[in-house]
């Protein structure tokens, strides 16, 4: 019971990271001439998810007198390599060359966010919105940064604006935004609003695993074990290696008195945790399995 609630708090934090920033494509640009092969190769490598090669090509473009777009794209490539200090430096240089390079504000904001510098990220997203008032990415990302600071009310406002600005046909993005808004609602202690947002996310994208997981945790918090169990069932159908879902489902089965089913789920959770290298939680799960087996033998 206690472990399940702890996982709810964990997913409130991890969910923000997992649902973090909408994938931002390499900045669209008009190449100065057809011979700028380095920049073209950088974009091609980025699209192929070979970020190290992309950095090399964008570096070559910069050495040939690169533009703000070359720095901004190298910044984004560095972010995917988790080189956040280098990314921030690149986008700062891009903005020195062109203070209106909107993608540089977006990318530097992402680098600041990933570095844990939420206030700096908010400043960059706000500056971007001065230049592009209808950019849903800036609203969404700023909402995430505000949630990192536990400014949940302000985050919800930004998520709402992001929903209004995004294309109504972009169901995957809408699902992500509603999921994160649901997490912010939980941060405010509004479980009913959170349930509504998680359900909306699922309506837009029936395979939105994290929305099912978060909704399942919220149902459990509300004491609705049947609904929680259904959501965790759906999670493991969609993601057979989702260890936390097996763990939570096992704990609910224990709470309902079905020790045999609980042990099956907990053993599956332990196997997944071990495969994922989460050894601390793996050991905790093994300890729980041992206690359940002992109590089952004592009852029998």
Can you characterise this structure?
- The chain has helices at residues 2-18, 37-47, 51-63, 68-80, 84-97, 102-114, 118-131, 136-148, 152-165, 171-187, 191-204, 209-221, 225-238, 243-255, 259-275, 279-299.
- It has 300 residues and is an all-alpha fold.
- The protein has a domain at 1-166: Serine Threonine Protein Phosphatase 5, Tetratricopeptide repeat (Alpha Horseshoe), CATH 1.25.40.
- Helix 2 packs parallel to helix 4 and helix 10 (171-187) packs parallel to helix 12.
- It is elongated, with a radius of gyration of 22 Å.
- It starts with a helix and ends with a helix.
Which word captures the global form?
A: elongated
Separate helix tally: 16
At the first level of CATH, the class of one domain is: Mainly Alpha
The CATH homologous superfamily of one domain: Tetratricopeptide repeat domain
What is the rounded distance between the termini?
23 Å
Helix content: over 70%
What is the second-level CATH architecture of one domain? Alpha Horseshoe
- From the 3D structure, determine the CATH topology of one domain: Serine Threonine Protein Phosphatase 5, Tetratricopeptide repeat
């Amino acid at each position: 019971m206690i472990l399940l609630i702890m996982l709810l708090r964990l997913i409130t934090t991890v969910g923000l990271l997992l649902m973090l920033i909408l994938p931002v494509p390499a900045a669209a640009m008009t190449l100065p001439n057809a011979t700028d092969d380095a920049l073209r190769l950088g974009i091609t490598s980025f699209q192929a998810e070979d970020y190290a090669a992309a950095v090399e090509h964008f570096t070559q473009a910069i050495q040939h007198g690169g533009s703000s777009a070359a720095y901004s794209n190298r910044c984004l490539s560095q972010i995917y390599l988790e080189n956040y200090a280098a990314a921030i430096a690149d986008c700062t240089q891009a903005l020195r060359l062109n203070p209106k390079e909107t993608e540089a504000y977006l990318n530097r904001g992402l680098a600041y966010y990933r570095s844990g510098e939420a206030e700096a990220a908010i400043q960059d997203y706000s500056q971007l919105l001065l230049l592009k008032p209808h950019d849903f990415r800036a609203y969404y990302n700023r909402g995430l940064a505000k949630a990192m600071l536990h400014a949940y009310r302000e985050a919800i406002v930004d998520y709402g604006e992001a929903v209004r600005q995004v294309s109504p046909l972009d169901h995957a993005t809408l699902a992500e935004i509603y999921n994160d808004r649901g997490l912010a609602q939980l941060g405010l202690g509004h479980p009913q609003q959170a349930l509504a947002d998680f359900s909306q996310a699922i309506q837009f994208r029936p395979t939105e695993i994290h929305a099912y997981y978060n909704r399942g945790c919220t149902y459990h918090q509300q004491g609705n074990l049947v609904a929680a169990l259904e959501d965790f069932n759906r999670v493991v159908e969609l993601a057979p290696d989702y260890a936390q879902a097996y763990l939570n489902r096992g704990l609910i089965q224990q709470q309902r008195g079905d020790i045999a089913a609980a042990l099956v789920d907990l053993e599956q959770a332990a196997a997944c945790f071990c495969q994922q290298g989460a050894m601390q939680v793996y050991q905790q799960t093994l300890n729980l399995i041992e206690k359940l087996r002992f109590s089952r033998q004592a009852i029998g």
